[in-house]
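To illustrate the input format used throughout this study, we show a single complete record. The first block contains the structure-token representation of the backbone; no residue identities are included at this stage. The design step must infer an amino acid for every position from geometry alone.
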């Protein structure tokens, strides 16, 4: 187990509680996402956490592969699905770069609240392009910690930066802005069809993009 997996495993038990303060953003994001889903969709939920989003949208799609690097998060997610009688989600401890995921095999890829925590967001977006079917949909929601935020969130960021420096938090927490996220999908691979910045204590950027055609030689 690497340091990142261990950190998220240790955070899993209190994860839902720590996210409650941003429930307005999470709820808004889930509701807006539903507009872009179809009952025939095969979905990959990357960084699914404790499975709240996957369980809520499960009745709207054909099936979901929900993955997270944390086994503890996955265990909680499986419990939620079982309690809700949800049977069309396959929760598993995995990474988006695992070879088990075939190219052009998903209609939708979700990346909720995690692009600011990965080592290389550009590689993640390119991998998403590979995994999507032609015309497939990439939906992301990303905290923009480099944008507008309350005093409380600003103090939290200072604390996180200190904990990062001393190694208590072993994952990158980047202070992105909406322009940084626009830049990730600014080439010919994706056609952006919807964006919105949501604010409730901190800014989050909701983006929907369709897979375009990869330029020749790329």
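Output of the design step:
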């Amino acid at each position: 187990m690497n340091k990142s997996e261990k950190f998220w495993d240790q955070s899993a038990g209190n994860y839902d509680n720590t996210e409650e303060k941003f429930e307005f953003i999470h709820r808004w994001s889930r509701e807006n996402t539903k507009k872009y889903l179809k009952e025939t969709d095969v979905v990959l939920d990357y960084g699914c956490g404790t499975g709240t989003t996957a369980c809520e949208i499960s009745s709207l799609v054909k099936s979901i592969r929900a993955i997270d690097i944390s086994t503890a998060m996955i265990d909680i997610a499986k419990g939620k699905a079982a309690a809700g009688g949800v049977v069309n989600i396959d929760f598993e401890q995995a990474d988006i770069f695992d070879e088990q995921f075939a190219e052009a095999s998903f209609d939708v890829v979700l990346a909720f609240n995690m692009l600011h925590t990965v080592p290389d967001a550009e590689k993640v977006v390119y991998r998403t392009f590979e995994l999507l079917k032609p015309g497939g949909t990439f939906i992301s929601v990303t905290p923009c910690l480099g944008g507008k935020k309350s005093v409380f969130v600003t103090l939290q960021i200072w604390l996180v930066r200190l904990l990062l420096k001393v190694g208590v938090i072993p994952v990158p927490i980047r202070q992105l802005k909406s322009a940084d996220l626009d830049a990730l999908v600014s080439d010919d691979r994706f056609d952006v069809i919807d964006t919105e910045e949501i604010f409730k204590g901190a800014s989050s950027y909701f983006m929907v993009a369709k897979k375009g055609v990869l330029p020749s030689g790329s």
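Structural context for interpreting the output: Strands lie at 42-46, 63-68, 89-93, 106-112, 132-143, 190-199, 203-211. The two ends are 34 Å apart (CA to CA).
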